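User: Run a structure prediction on this.
Assistant: Running it now.
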Amino acid sequence: MTDRTLNYLGLALVGIVGAAFLVLTPRFAELDVVLELTIYMIMAILALSLALIWGYGGILCFGQAAFFGLGAYTYAIAMFNIGESTMPLLLAIALPAVFAALLGYFMFYGRISDVYLGVITLTVTLILFNSVNSTAGPEFRIGAARLGGFNGIPGIPPLNIPGNKAWVVDLEGMFYLATGALLATYFGLRWLLASRFGRIIVGIRENERRAELLGYDPRAYKLATFTIGGALAGFAGCLFANWGAFVSPTIFGLAQSAQIIIWVIVGGRGTLVGPIVGCIGIQWLTTALGANQPSGSDWWTKLLANAPFILGIILIAFVLLVPKGLVPTLGDWGQALLRARTRRPATGLKPKQAEEG
């Protein structure tokens, strides 16, 4: 079976599973489960934004939460001022994209090395966190929207059907929207990566110097990749603000930035399915650890109740034991098993015939 056939089979499998999940889940699951699954879908879009930038573009961005938070705050502020969600949704995508383009221009055209690039993006996230966190006074408002500082912005109006403010998207509708957006993002990125642009950014990741000698400008391609990733993160931030009708400065926090990287590492860098699997798995585990707190006051029980500690152990285990990530490792095992089953002795006889003959 050729790699192209396996690729098509993988695409078909993702499409079938995704469509079945989209259609069947609201019919058989309770509303609270649907609500929980919705946030998983939104965070998976955020994971895909870093999967593109880091996994395929080779740009380690510690500040993906900055674009996510900008999208959420932009949507919230615009909704309180405009009242109809079409323009706020577009602004929530456009503003993080423009911010990513400006930041990326100075980083890539300034020939900033990978290590300093990670430091800069992390610093930007911390600056945004502290800036938004210190806007608690009543004087900090943009039009009709009060920023709220560390209290955040509550009561964010939901998305509505374009042009009809009265027809808002309810909780079940948010699940359909988030899942549909995740599927569209996945297949859109697959198309992008299969195009000439996608092949070039992968080539730049593998050997930037060689790509430059072939006539490509790595700075321009990195900038475009970084901007697309920022727009995707902003879109996920808009959906997040809708899901909880609330946004606070913690969205820019270090924990938020770190967990996006953990999703990609655990699921598998250089894939699109891997970050989705890593995101959903870790989000589910975090929720389960928070919901099932063991009782007791001994140090062992307190240790098991510490969700960040458990997640840290999982991350270290994956980095040391499964460095390629979950999905690529399972893929390698599957291919090895397939080759073992289809392998024939050099005589052309079946294994049993070969033993007898």
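The beta strands are 141-142, 145-146, 153-154, 160-161, 164-168, 246-247.
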